[in-house]
Amino acid sequence: MYLGVNIYRLEAKSCKNPGVGSMKSNDDYKEEKKYETEEIIEENETYPPGRTRIFKIIISYCLLGILGWYLFNFLFHYDFFNIKYVIADGNDYLKQNEILKKSEIKIGENIFLLNLKKSVGLLKGDPWIREVEIKKIIPDKIKIIIKERKVSAIVKVGDEYWESSKEGIILCLSDSEENTTGLPLITGLNSKNIKFGEKIPEPEYRTALEIIHCMEVILPKKFCGVDILDSDDFLIYNQDGSIKVRVNKAEEIINKENLLRETLKKIMEEKLLIDYIDLRFKDSLVIKVKK
Questions:
Q1: Which of these, 256, 245, 254, lies nearest to 282 by C-alpha position?
Q2: Total count of domains within the chain
Q3: I want to staple 232 with a disulfide (CB 3.0 to 4.6 A). Which of 112, 147, 221, 248 is the partner?
């Protein structure tokens, strides 16, 4: 009996403070966490975040540089992007090979290395070309879109006959002195040495074109030429020279349209022989009859 009681008391004592073992475990856990925290701090001090970020940025830029180099070589040195076709559109007078030669675009040239501004400037230097646009069609085609100037008149300069635009730009020599083109012939210019591509400086040229166009509205295909007698005196005539009209500006033809129509109709019906019709007088029309 005595022995059993002692055992019981011993067990009771051992169970009296049940939390002692667990407290030791908590302290040990705190010590371990503290030790791990110190290790993490040491690691962070060894490898700062800023340096890691810089290292990553450097690697990224190196990769981008390598990719850019390969892309550059692919675009500028690979035969896939060499020019194989050049197409001209809108040209009536100029030929395809002439346009290609003037543009200095070379077959086989890399399409990305083509200097569009230079080629456009070269083409605009041709008097026949009024507007030009060049398009790159990836991977190997170039399209040249042009608008040519149109011939508006035949002008006599010195002893030569030239085709000219409405702006007065000399485009080319006329095939013959005889006006068989259906274009108005303008004579009486003071300019004697105008060359291909140059512009007629005299304002009378523009006035002469306006006058002949106004007469074309009133009587189509009846008048074929204008002789510039003075800066305010223009003589319009028909194909055989049987009808001539003197006028100082295009507005006079418009203002006296009805009167001029009736007069011309009467002259043609009665086959009157006249020297010319004069529209230079205000609000009147004078007919000079041949003697």
A1: 256
A2: 3
A3: 248
Low pLDDT (below 70) residues in the chain: 1-50, 55, 68-77, 176-181
CATH of the domain at 100: 3.10.20.310
CATH for 204:
3.40.50
Using CB atoms within 10 Å of the CB of residue 274, give its burial: 0 to 12 exposed, 13 to 18 middle, 19+ buried: middle
Contact between 255 and 285 (Cβ < 8 Å): no
Is the model's pTM score more than 0.85?
A: no
| Containing structural domain, residue 137 | 81-148
Residue 96 counted as domain residue: yes
Helix 96-103 × helix 116-124 angle, to 10°: 120
Task: Return the residue matching tokens 């001539």.
Answer: 244
Q: What is the pLDDT of residues 237-246, one digit of tens each?
A: 988 888 899 9
Name the strands in the sheet holding 153-157, side by side, starting at the edge strand that comes first in the sequence.
Answer: 170-173, 160-164, 153-157, 185-187, 223-230, 233-238, 244-247, 274-278, 286-289
Which tokens hold the place of 93?
């007078």
Q: What is the pLDDT of residue 268?
A: 83
Asked whether 142 and 85 are in contact (CB, 8 A), the reply is: yes
pLDDT tens digits, residue range 147-169? 999 999 999 988 889 999 999 99
The reply to whether 1 falls in a domain is no
Both 187 and 263 in one domain: the answer is yes
